[in-house]
Amino acid sequence: MTGVHTGAPAVPDTEKKPYRPGSLEVLGLVLVLAIVFRGPLADFVDRVLPSSWATIFVAICVQATPFLVLGVLVSGVIAAFVPASFFRRVMPKKAAPAVAVAGVCGVALPGCECGSVPIADRLMDRGVRPSAALAFLLSAPAINPIVLVATAVAFQAEPRMVWARLVAGLLTAVVVGLIWEKIGRPEWMKPRLRDRDEEQQGSGWKVLVPSMRSDFTQAAGFLVIGAAAAATLNTVVPRSIMEHVGSSILLSLLVMGLLAVVLALCSESDAFVAASFSTIPVVGKLVFLTVGPAVDIKLFAMQSGTFGRRFAVRFAPLTFLVAMVIAVGVGLLFWGGWS
Known about the structure:
Blueprint: H1 2-7, H2 10-14, H3 23-36, H4 38-48, H5 51-81, H6 85-89, H7 95-104, H8 113-125, H9 130-143, H10 145-154, H11 160-183, H12 198-201, H13 205-235, H14 239-247, H15 249-263, H16 270-275, H17 282-291, H18 297-307, H19 309-335
Helix pairs in contact: 5-10, 5-13, 7-9, 7-11, 8-9, 8-18, 9-11, 10-11, 11-17, 11-19, 15-17, 17-19, 18-19
């Protein structure tokens, strides 16, 4: 039986599989085309967009990229060499302490929200209560050191933003986890089937490079989209409209919350985009930085595929509401007003 089992996979290996370019190849092709057609592309941008658009776009990308690369590197190392069972061992058995500890453990995952979804799924599969795993899912991309350092660089003129983001992100994770502990139902979660040897098969150096490549190409794409959107809002959209949004507290809070959902930025780079909205009150920027890592379009899609649509349509609105309320409350506490 052993001989048959070990020999079976050799047959498919001899077959020629059609080549399918991955995300890294597509990104490389786009970069090559951009370099080759740099002249016509620059002329087109100059005709369609204001000259300051490219300056703002490049500035946001250049500022954010080092933090994105560092986050992907550290996240890849953790995914490859730190077993997910480590987090299970440090969590208490009771619900409230488990949720609180899981939220604090988010500091141990320097990466973006894209990587927290599969890790939360593994934690649930290995016996961690869903409320604690979800608290970890929300806190990891919001309060890890790389995100906080990036926020400090982006908001050098407003250092309180770092502490405000830490408090708001941690409170959002813990509060949502505690609420889910009360209202969550097992039937809302899609059953997960796993190989018992998954952790042993999915670890080590062979996981490091693919994990880094996947995380970087996905996160870099969202960074480019977000930087382009921010540059467009700062240059193409009439300043009077942005000033009108900024002059209305409720409108600015709602707009920044919805922008965070729609832009779906990586949490390691969103601070630079938020800082570029010069007409938005500081509390509105905190809303953007609190909502974005907790709920956005790409997270909704990932959560639907991982945990099921019945879960996502309940979890996303709950998270959005809690993040909005906590961000506003923390902002008022730190700045004593709307600023």
